[in-house]
Design brief:
Layout: H1 2-41, H2 44-50, E1 53-56, E2 59-62, H3 63-70, E3 71-79, E4 84-91, H4 103-112, E5 114-122, E6 125-137, E7 140-146, H5 147-160
Antiparallel strand pairs: 1-2, 3-4, 4-5, 5-6, 6-7
Helix pairs in contact: 3-5
Length: 161
């Protein structure tokens, strides 16, 4: 009798696991679909721009290398009508390392600090005069840089890594 009860309980558990396994498989499938959709959403223009070579202080790197190195969770968008590249991501050290932020602030920035870079692409180069960098924390802009100073700051940050 006890064996029969054990087998019945075990069967019930397995039946419940089968449903759960099916739910997990569906969730994984949904995640894969979302990832594929996001990957295909990046336009060919963005891919071409990410491959643009940068030569700065005797170091060669690409636009992709630059932003993937200095930001986390990088997102790309390109406005072809304005020739503007919009890159956003989460802050990471050593970006803006000259700021007098304590460790608690750096931790908060690393978790929720959003960096947005907008730059104009002209003849396969980033126009330094038309570069804007903004750091936002808790819906408040805490740092903004523009022009050549902003672009060179990004390049210098890349070289520190």
């Amino acid at each position: 009798m006890t064996k029969m009860a054990c087998i019945t309980c075990f069967g019930a558990l397995l039946a419940g696991c089968g449903d759960r396994l099916s739910e997990i498989e569906e969730a994984v499938s949904g995640i894969n679909s979302a990832a594929d959709s996001a990957a295909s959403a990046v336009s060919r223009d963005v891919h071409a721009i990410r491959a643009i070579d940068i030569n700065y202080k005797d170091t060669a790197f690409t636009v992709n290398d630059l932003f993937k190195t200095i930001l986390r969770d990088t997102r790309w968008d390109y406005d072809a009508e304005k020739n503007e590249l919009h890159v956003s991501g989460t802050w990471r050290e050593p970006l803006f390392s000259e700021q007098p932020w304590d460790n608690a602030m750096k931790k908060q920035l690393a978790e929720t600090g959003k960096v947005t870079v907008t730059c104009t692409i002209t003849n396969k180069t980033i126009d330094s005069a038309l570069t804007n960098v903004t750091l936002v924390l808790n819906d408040e802009t805490i740092l903004q840089m523009n022009g050549e100073e902003a672009l060179h700051h990004l390049y210098d940050t890349y070289l520190k890594k």
